[in-house]
Amino acid sequence: MVAVAFVVHPERPVAVELAARAGAWLTERGHTVTKVVDPASASGLDGDGVDLAVSLGGDGTMLRTVAMAAGRGIPVLGVNLGQLGYLTEVEPAALEDALGRFVAGDYEVEERMTLEVEITRAGSPSPTDTGSPYLVLNEAVVEKTAPGHTVRLSASIAGRPFVTYLADGLLVATPTGSTAYNLSARGPILSPLLRAIIVTPISAHMLFDRTIVLEPHQWLRLEVAGPRPGVLVIDGVIVGQLEPGDAVACREGPKNARVVSLGNRDFHDVLRSRFHLADR
User: Fold this and answer.
1) Is 129 a catalytic residue?
2) Which residue of the set 46, 48, 51, 59 is catalytic?
3) Tens of pLDDT along 126-139?
4) What is the pLDDT of residues 39-98, one digit of tens each?
5) Cβ 196 vs Cβ 178: under 8 Å
6) Which residue segments constitute the domains of the chain, with CATH numbers given?
7) CB–CB of 112/178 below 8 Å?
8) Residues 29, 53: contact at Cβ < 8 Å?
């Protein structure tokens, strides 16, 4: 018997209906449906004994689900009800089959690298933001707050000064996040099972505008050098305003995201499909 929690996009009726149908399918077979969790809920996946979290939505819902589940080691199965579906594993019609394979043990769990992100306020020797550290699956972005202006960010790598960026922002991504905002900013595409930290400037106003790829232990510190403030965005959600002197540290996360794979999708096949690539 397994216990399954459904994380449902609350504004998509098809997700609610799919959760109810799949929940009934599991219950009829003697399994436990623990709850239907709103991805915006602060409570998250409370309690013990959840064997699987099922994300019903798009990539955004998948990101919220992973953020709730990773700290507890719960594997996540993504069901694509969105547009892109880079992170999700199955389509809605295949959910019951996927659940059956999970129950039977016919699946693998991919261990995806995460980032841990902390805010240190100006004048403080240690992280001071009450919301951090944040667990990141795709990316952390420090970016400008005022249209038509830039933000200055002094970057240090593993405690050593590197360069001060003058840009619209700086994006720090995982390999899983390389196909998200990093892709739009013309950063490189990495296999999601690699372990690396991708640092991509966004519209840099300087000659050095290239992405750099760091080893996972090479943590990155970004300090807002002023005179203008910045903002920290974690997996598409604004989590904090940054004043001059505030800093953000990004390092390899202590917990992996555990993503269920059924062997149905190959990463490169997904790229071919999403970009309409064809053999010549």
Assistant:
1) no
2) 59
3) 888 877 799 999 99
4) 766 455 766 689 999 999 888 889 989 988 988 899 999 998 876 667 788 889 999 999
5) no
6) 3-112+257-274 (3.40.50.10330), 115-252 (2.60.200.30)
7) no
8) no
